[in-house]
Amino acid sequence: MSATDRAAHGRERQAAAQLLGRVVTGIWTAHAGYAAVKLRVADRLTELPRPAQEIAAEVGADPGALARLLRTLAALGVFTEGPAGHFALNDTGRQLRTDSESPLGPFLELHHEIFRPWHAELLHTVRTGQPAAEKVYGMPFFAHLERDPAAGKVFHDALARSLPLLVRAALADGVFDGIGSLADLGGGDGALVELALQHDPALRATLLERPEALAGARERLAAAGVADRCTFAEGSFFETAPKDHDAYVIARCLHNWPDDRAARILRTVRAVMRDDARLLLFEQVVSSEPGFDMGKCADLTMMLIGGRERTRAEHEDLLASAGLRLREVRGVSVAGTPKSHVLVAVPD
Does residue 255 have an active-site annotation? Predict the structure, then answer.
């Protein structure tokens, strides 16, 4: 091996070691980000560097410890380090402010406070195929959220931050064009219906949800001045769906469930769809090609609660099992979130 080849081989080994080092220490940096979010550090920083000692007094932290935390995060590019223990806000850190539209701050809280216990049990799931969340809680994940309102609030608040961004992007891209009536199944607090009704004054909607969730949706749509164009229906999308709508939407729900239960949802919808109706699914589509894809990482999390992210072929097979055909997949890109998709399906 020539000196040039040895040098190239050495650089490759060093790059591989650095990559593995980031994998090994990823939990460290995630905890650092969480601490900064909980202390609301980004809310106190400005574009002009401020001393860590001042910030510590405002957020209730030890000055020396906070300076070391900020130094680490600045080294990662989250904040900017100035002279003599001063730190400033940059575009990355600005996404962690409480007044930011970015969902990344709430997701750091979600991952640390809700996901972390069952991520620690990943080995259990890999060995047994059983959801780690059920080992941690002694019950399915969503049953736990119903029994623990505080955990449910953290979970739903984090999702509520990102969904409107995706819906606005889909509306701007024309995904909802040509729809006169829309049924949102499992529509939560009504954020999607609110935005759709505001976007199209002629649109009418039905929101299907469990009774305990509908109260918040009614309040939200009333405050937005669109409740008169929405019908609120109590029920579960495993059992029922409203009839006679141009389009049905299920936003970020199918990935919560294994194939048999997801297929049950789809069959329930298919049973009430007209031949000219369409189904809009807000889901990730995992790349089937080798290489990095955030959907592959998200799939590990879904595996731990018994769900899964799916490739295009897996979505097609799931839809076909319910008498539906995938017509198209439209990418929906929002800064600060993994790439999402809207899958448009029609009766087969």
Answer: yes
**pLDDT tens track for 298-341:** 999 999 999 999 999 999 999 999 999 999 999 987 765 667 89
Question: Number of C-alpha atoms within 13 angstroms, CB side, residue 93?
Answer: 25
Pairing mode, strands 181-185 and 247-251: parallel
Q: How far apart are CA 34 and CA 31, in angstroms?
A: 5
Closest CA to 243 of 257, 231, 255: 231
Copy the structure tokens of residue 231: 């019908």
Using an 8 Å Cβ cutoff, are 259 and 325 in contact?
Answer: no
Rounded Cα distance between 221 and 214, Å, is: 10
Residue ranges of domains in the chain: 3-94, 162-347
Q: Which two tokens stand for residue 280?
A: 């809009």
Alpha-carbon distances, residue 37 vs 59, 88, 98, 336 (angstroms): 11, 15, 9, 16
Look up the pTM and report it: 0.88
Task: With beta carbons less than 8 A apart as the criterion, state whether 343 and 326 touch.
Answer: yes
Task: DSSP letter for 100, please.
Answer: -
What would the pLDDT profile of 146-159 be if each residue is shown by its tens digit?
Answer: 999 999 888 888 88
Beta partners for residue 345, in sequence order: 279, 326
Amino acid at 72: T
The CA distance from 41 to 52, in Å, is 10
| pLDDT of 6 over the 70 cut | no
CB 321 within 8 A of CB 263: yes
- Cβ–Cβ under 8 Å, residues 348 and 266: no
Share of the chain above pLDDT 90, in %: 79
261: tokens are 């239960």
Beta bridge partners of 136: none
Catalytic residue among 86, 255, 315, 341: 255
User: In the chain, helix, strand, coil percent, each to 5?
Assistant: 55, 15, 30
- H or E element at residue 331: strand 324-332
CATH numeric code, 3-94: 1.10.10.10
Instruction: Identify the CATH class of 162-347.
Output: alpha beta
End-to-end C-alpha distance for the chain, whole angstroms: 61
